[in-house]
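Exercise: predict the fold of this chain.
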Amino acid sequence: MTSEEYIPEVGAGPRRFGALSPTDRFEMNLTDLPHRWRHRRAVLSLAIAAAISALGGSGGVAAQVAVPDSAALDIPGIEVTGERAVALTGGASALEIDVRSLPLLRAAPTVEDLFREIPGLGVRTNSRGQAEITVRGSESRQVAVLLDGIPLSLGWDHRSDVSVLPATAVEHVQFVRGLSTMTAGPNALGGVVRLSLTEGAEPGLRASSGSDQLGGWTASGDVTHLFAEGRGVVRIGGGYRDIPAVPLADDVDERPQAESGERQNTDMRNVDGFLALRYETVSGRWASFTAVGHDTDRGIAAELGTANARFWRQPDTRRGLFALRAGTGEQDSPWGRGSIEAGIFLDESTEETVAFEGADFDVIEGIERGDGTTVTGRVRGSHSLGARGTLRASTDYVMIDFDTEEDGVSRAFDQRLLSTALETEWRVAGDAGTGPFSEVTLSFGGAYDRMTVEEAGGLPLPGAIEEWGGRVGVAAEMRSGPTLHANVSRRGRFPALREAFSEALGRFVPNPGLGAETLVAIEAGVTVDLGTGQLQVVGFRNDLSDAIRRITFADGTRQRVNSDELESHGVDIFTTQRVGPFLVGGDLRLQSVELTDPGLNVSTEPENVPEQEGRIWTEWGTPSVLRIRGEAEFTGSQFCQDLDTGEDVELDGGTWLNGVISRVWSVGTGMWGQVETSLRATNLADTTLHDQCGLPRPGRTLSFQVSVK
């Protein structure tokens, strides 16, 4: 097995990073819009871009394709190919995304921008300005996010703030909507998102730049070189973002201190860089090194319609991520074939938060600074069990150290996580015979997890918490075409240091006795070819016991507590189809989420979980000339807690209209032979939607880019 990631692969041989070609690909997005160019001239440029883009030809079409993983959805670029980049086992459904194929992704995107383009992955902005993710009713701390194996979702808060994390380096995304393996490490129970810097990388030099109607300016560039006949890759690059503000929908009333049409205190300046190296020998042995870092200065939108709004800025947010890994690949042994891999991962972060007394942002109320270090050690092993079986084992050990300084008072926190797992997979039927199935694969496994807190900032130390996990999965490919899959799993999540001990500048009451939550998940689905497209339908049920949730006291302070149970069940639907010159598709998530908590009578509804979400899209074009895509993105109603009373408030749903039009111009031959102009629009109808109480999403956003290939 040559993959260094968690999910096992079927029939994996030595991995290559990109197809070598006689001429390396060169892509460069340019814009002549000056830095911080505002309103009128930016809007004029957008109008000119629309006129230019509307002329002539047609362009490549990106697609979303449901293919069996056990049930995987593949999103290749250009055409529907039905190819499967990763063959997953364990009976879990998944998505494979080539980042370059996402049509609405802006220049120099953040990981938040990237995640908002992924079907089935919900994204919202919380009151700290962080972008949280949700899968099937689960919240962001239950979804593991890994960047070249680095666990971004383990640390002080046990979730990654993807709103400031750059996606400059990301080439490929794998999104598992359930739990396909027990070897995903601690706190991985509601899904796994893997971001890769080298998988699918193509040689060449790329740069990008873009501007929006408020004068926001972004730019990024990277260079990729393949060597050793495609077995090695080196990538280096960086990006810059200067966002003066987020657009405000017309029917949202901002504070009088804000500029017209802008959400107050939503500016951001961010710079990032990365280096990725990987080499694989002919025999399959490999080693890799990854370094990613960013430095951010940003404002945080204050909640509207409440007397308890927080007026915060984060002038210093920095993060450095480092990974060193090596593996043997599949090698012969006295008992068959096996592999082993090991890695050490470092996550260094600094975050300074300044609280102001009011919306004028002139009188400082308090300052909180946090410095965190998370070190993870990981060992994975795999070995064949005869001709039909495979045994896998893993161990992860995580050390989380976090120091805070709040109004001159220093506190130290220290948490340790251990996770060890063992699982096996068996191909119980396949190929030969005349039965209904051409292949049936069964997998099952278990895990032991443990958490201890060594330092708690002077608060009482909780005792060690232990949890067990287990899963059973099956995938069956029928000779008639459809692929069936199912799995059931149990896994626990330990509370983060911030959940149990943080006071958040006086807004939260610590709860050192906060316990772990446990998720029992069931999933079953089918993937089938339909004419020129495919359809994937997946049903699920999640039962979360001792769910950690937020409550609000009469004085406005809040606390994290263990509720009784949070239940969600529903269905995911993904489809694509070619109709004449059009490629059409969509995704739909219908779920019912119920919170059972007899001890609390103020708030009884699950917070910030829409029960209906979906998207319908269509694309038209001829390869390499013109590309037009339009989509309607629907979000259903949801509940949030009133910021003053703590009572449940229902937020209305609505539909966003998004689109992109791009034109490729031939200006010569060779590396500089093509120029591409593109105009992108999100929330074109300026529809007001809220992520939670007092926090509206951005209004209409238009952006313009130019590319040179």
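Check your answer against the key: Residues 1-87 have pLDDT under 50 and may be disordered.
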